């Protein structure tokens, strides 16, 4: 059975560079199945809503994460940090504390930005949040994509820069191996 990778985009913008990169991933590595996990319909996190009868969008979101063998987050950096919509989504996936869907879930982080520094600061914050909820963030592998506007084609909505495509391909292959390692570690 093929590994199922959930892909979560940390931007709601229709023509997001990160969305284009995320949309390219399935064509780069076909040895896995991919499910896109939307964060667009999640309400702002509110513990008063986080009960057994939580909002339907939250139930669907948590279920999608639960069904994935691992999660790749593809996210921009906003004001030197994690986008608010992504932080909100991670907060919803971090409860209930003892059974949260991100606990022991393999996770990877890719980020693209028009700037020259990639998404270093955002990825540090995303990793910190994932560590706090006990996700297994892939170590030693970081995927920062700078000057993204030169590496995507808005017409096709895909990543077109060949060097960057090879880097993303290598990252995703490493991530699939990471998922396998985590599953072995967890006795699955």
Automatic annotation (TrEMBL):
<comment type="similarity">
    <text>Belongs to the azoreductase type 2 family.</text>
</comment>
<dbReference type="Pfam" id="PF03358">
    <property type="entry name" value="FMN_red"/>
</dbReference>
<dbReference type="GO" id="GO:0010181">
    <property type="term" value="F:FMN binding"/>
</dbReference>
<dbReference type="InterPro" id="IPR005025">
    <property type="entry name" value="FMN_Rdtase-like_dom"/>
</dbReference>
<feature type="domain" description="NADPH-dependent FMN reductase-like">
    <location>
        <begin position="4"/>
        <end position="148"/>
    </location>
</feature>
<dbReference type="GO" id="GO:0005829">
    <property type="term" value="C:cytosol"/>
</dbReference>
<dbReference type="InterPro" id="IPR029039">
    <property type="entry name" value="Flavoprotein-like_sf"/>
</dbReference>
<protein>
    <submittedName>
        <fullName>NADPH-dependent FMN reductase</fullName>
    </submittedName>
</protein>
<dbReference type="GO" id="GO:0016491">
    <property type="term" value="F:oxidoreductase activity"/>
</dbReference>
<dbReference type="InterPro" id="IPR050712">
    <property type="entry name" value="NAD(P)H-dep_reductase"/>
</dbReference>
